[in-house]
Amino acid sequence: MPVATFLLPSSLMLQLLTATPPPAPAPKAAPPVAASLPVAERLVGAALTEGHAWGRLEELTDGVGARLSGSEGAEAAVQWALRAFKADGVKAWLEPVKVPHWVRGEERAELLASERFRGRPLSVMALGGSAATPPEGITGEVVEVRSLEELSALGERVKGRVVLFGHTMQKPEDYGRFAALRSRGPAAAAKAGAVAALVRSLATASLATPHTGATRFEEGEPRIPAASVTVEDAELLSRLVAAGGPVRVKLVLGCQELPDVDSFNVVAEVKGREKPQEVVLLGAHLDSWDVGTGAHDDGAGVVMVMEAARLLTKQKAAPRRTVRVVLFMNEENGLRGARAYAETHAAELSRHVAALELDVGGGRPVGVALRAGPGAGDRVRPWLSPLRAVDAGTLVEAEAGGADLLPLIPAQVPFFGVKQDVSRYFDVHHTHADTLDKVDPVALAQSTAAVTWLAYAMAEMPETLPRPEAPSKPLGP
User: Fold this and answer.
1) Residue 113 contacts by C-beta under 8 Å, 6 or more apart in sequence?
2) Cα separation of 31 and 37, whole Å?
3) Residue range 428-452, pLDDT digits in tens
4) 10-100+260-460 belongs to which CATH class?
5) C-beta neighbour count of 169 within 10 angstroms
6) Is the per-residue pLDDT at 4 higher than 90?
7) How far apart are CA 337 and CA 360, in angstroms?
8) Is 110 helix (H, G, I), strand (E, B) or coil?
9) Whole-Å CA distances, 238 to 145, 151, 168, 243
């Protein structure tokens, strides 16, 4: 696909950048937004017209490809990112992290024939962290549940069975409702005596496409083979089970859990001119699943934060505070990179004044979200007028943050986020179809512009965001 640009006439750009925002409460001493509008015009204009983020995404997806942590692809991505930062004139370095090395291997399944129906293949993908089956596979009768509570209520009836975790995901907001069935369901089934688990793919659309993802077994507890199954095959199994009589399947998975591997977070920095010790963090995860090429998840996020660093480096004067970009390793199946960063930088987390993570694809921006203390919105609103050029100049009621930022919550780091259109994100999420052609270059450029300006604003505004309250209980992924 050719690089597309999003060109605005200079008169319209200036009008949008200087437009008066809607009336809103403001602090008595308004921040010097006006003095920064020429910077906004340069940053937003370059992000919209140069196509640099798209070019980098093409390098990462078509060049490096899939990059599950522990793999050769992940190592290649680390070196690619380091070279790219240095080519852009951005100071960058590597920080070590030990990551898991899970390998997919063979995967196939079939519905076994009965007096009621003919046998047929089932489309499956092993879940990350799944155990292997014996070489000859595992055969068992299917029992369906729609919640972890329903699984618990079945008691002894789970023993020796293949548990099918069904659900009704239809829209992006449903992902949070049902994701625990994939991440925690197989382990719960194993404790109940199941021999294997199948999870209906977490998808908003399906053309017989299985969606993978991580499942988690605790150390020392039983592990069973676990796979995602297409929406179509999950619905078939559900109908057959509901009709009565035994429904049996055979599952063959050749997964391997290899020894941990040495890897790295890639860190880059634009040093602040006045308060370099205060840090605005921009994060995305460099790893992807081993299927597709991780264009939306999370190649788009990676190239957006990289482009923000490049464009900020080109400014004559750096922003007041340091902007630090972190490309985390192992978000998909472990969060080792996130934990390593928090441990390595523990002494300075109190000086992290804002953090953003991009991990919802390359869709267009639709607004700005905050997770901070009282009064944060009043400080940020005056800085949002430049984002009206990309229809993202308002605060929205939504959670800011991301999985790689979880270890920063105990330090009460304020979070900000560019909210994006995710209406089609879960169509290809964690599938072979997560490839460059699914990303719209114009939408990618618009979100890049929003991220770049917000990063500058957070680093430049006179006052930092008020910190949120400390969590009342321990946090976990």
Assistant:
1) 119
2) 12
3) 999 999 999 999 999 999 999 999 9
4) alpha beta
5) 20
6) no
7) 18
8) strand
9) 9, 15, 12, 9
How far is it, in rounded angstroms, from Cα 462 to Cα 275? 11
CATH 3.50.30.30 holds for 105-254: yes
Token pair for 185: 């369901």
Sign of dihedral through CA atoms 182, 183, 189, 194?
positive
Alpha helices in 88-173 (DSSP H): 148-154
- pLDDT value for 33: 84
Domain borders along the chain are 10-100+260-460, 105-254
Q: Among 159, 166, 161, which residue's Cα sits nearest to residue 182?
A: 166
Indicate the pLDDT class of residue 34, thresholds 50, 70 and 90.
Answer: confident
What the block records as the tokens of 135 is 């070489």
d(CA 9, CA 14): 9
**Could you tell me which residues come within 8 angstroms of residue 434 by beta carbon, excluding any fewer than 6 positions away?**
288, 289, 291, 292, 293, 294, 295, 296, 297, 428
Q: What is the mean pLDDT of residues 159-172?
A: 98
- State the pLDDT confidence band at 16, using cuts at 50, 70 and 90: very low
Task: List beta partners, residue 281.
Answer: 324, 355
CA distance 438 to 434: 7
CA dist 275 and 319 (Å) reads: 9
Locate 51 and state its tokens: 């196509």
Determine the length of the chain: 477
In one letter, which amino acid is 400?
A
The token pair that represents 426 in the structure block: 């879960």
| Percentage of the residues of the chain whose pLDDT score is greater than 90 | 90
What is the average pLDDT across 253-273?
98
Catalytic choice (41, 107, 331, 357): 331
Residues 75-103 pLDDT 10s? 999 999 999 999 999 999 999 999 999 99
115 is catalytic: no
Q: Which of 114, 110, 116, 174 is nearest to 146 (CA)?
A: 174
Q: 87: number of CA atoms within 13 Å, CB side?
A: 10
Which tokens hold the place of 10? 């200079």
User: How far is 410 from 384, CA to CA, in rounded Å?
Assistant: 28
